[in-house]
From TrEMBL, chains A, B:
The keyword Ubl conjugation does not apply. Keywords: DNA-binding, Transcription, Transcription regulation. GO terms for molecular function: DNA-binding transcription factor activity; transcription cis-regulatory region binding. Pfam families: TetR_C_11, TetR_N. Residues 33-52 bind DNA. PROSITE patterns: HTH_TETR_2. This is TetR/AcrR family transcriptional regulator. Residues 10-70 form the HTH tetR-type domain. Gene3D superfamilies: Homeodomain-like (1.10.10.60), Tetracycline Repressor, domain 2 (1.10.357.10). It comes from the Bacteria.
């Protein structure tokens, strides 16, 4: 056995994360295994098992490397316009990087792995909830949204519907974000 | 080999569907197999393979047996109140029957089986889209929702967010439906 250090080696870590994303792109999440990731990243399987408990955990970390678009909220003074920029950024992240396929795989695995689902909440959703709440709070103080708006539910709607469409393989584009914001901000009646 | 008729035997069919739901309840979707369903339903594996292409297809048919709450839209003359009844009915279906666990399993399998995902669209979502559009159209004529409301997006919001919370294992209750309807109908600003 090679003498592998207990502390994560940054180059190996990055090779493992990159390998998992490229393998998903090429073969799909369901074909992914620790063995395949190890081979592609040129590391031993034990190196992966030492740092991550499961394939899902590797992929979750790979997916959350590029979470900036999910957690960064611009503040130009116009909440509606800023939300549009932020949501279009997420759609771009989903449709132009490995994030979409990786997130779909993690959510699939999470349906029978509650620990993984909790990690998704902690690593992805909770970050977004916190940042959204702060940005919405400023918007409320400025009178851009009503004082009685349920901010948690507004967030569920904006991000939940994007995830719903992602998991169903439905199209996601900027025009859809406009339709979504129109209902969420102006209501149906 | 037993001489199995090509036409579906209704009693066997029901036994197979019931077996798949009870096995998911007991052991989880990821432990489900054609073999386990066959054993529980007291039928041969070939009987199942003759009628369904995969475990996911069996479970989708089991889940969609009780779709009445998803596709039946009351019309008491009050669209908002009727939507509340309909959505509370879906939450009840999810939380008190095997539908929730079965749907989660099918969506998990669908992330690496595009045929199954298309079947979910055809058997579940499209039915709901059609029935919702008809009910919303009456509401629009009566002036209960604005003429410029994007009805397809309104539907995505109401059902997509429920599915989002289901797949993340988040709580679903009638009070949440009230918060959801408040944003969707009255908007955040």
């Amino acid at each position: 056995m090679a003498n592998v250090p207990a502390v994560r080696n940054e180059r190996s870590r990055q090779a493992i994360l990159d390998a998992s994303i490229s393998l998903i792109d090429e073969f799909g999440y369901d074909k992914l295994s620790i063995e395949a990731i190890a081979r592609r990243a040129c590391v031993g399987k034990q190196t992966i098992y030492r740092w991550w408990p499961s394939v899902g955990a590797v992929v979750l970390e790979a997916a959350t490397q590029s979470l900036d678009p999910v957690v960064t909220f611009p503040d130009t003074g116009d909440f509606f316009a800023d939300m549009r920029s932020q949501l279009v950024g997420i759609v771009k992240l989903i449709t132009t990087t490995g994030f979409g396929a990786a997130y779909r795989g993690v959510m699939a695995a999470g349906q029978s792995d509650s620990g993984l689902l909790e990690a998704v909440y902690r690593e992805v959703i909770e970050q977004n909830v916190t940042a959204f709440r702060a940005r919405a709070s400023v918007a409320r103080e400025r009178g851009e949204i009503r004082a009685d708006t349920d901010v948690a539910t507004l967030r569920d709607i904006l991000y939940g519907v994007i995830e719903y469409r992602l998991l169903h393989g439905m199209s996601l584009e900027a025009a859809y974000i406009d339709a979504l914001l129109a209902v969420a901000f102006d209501g149906a009646r």
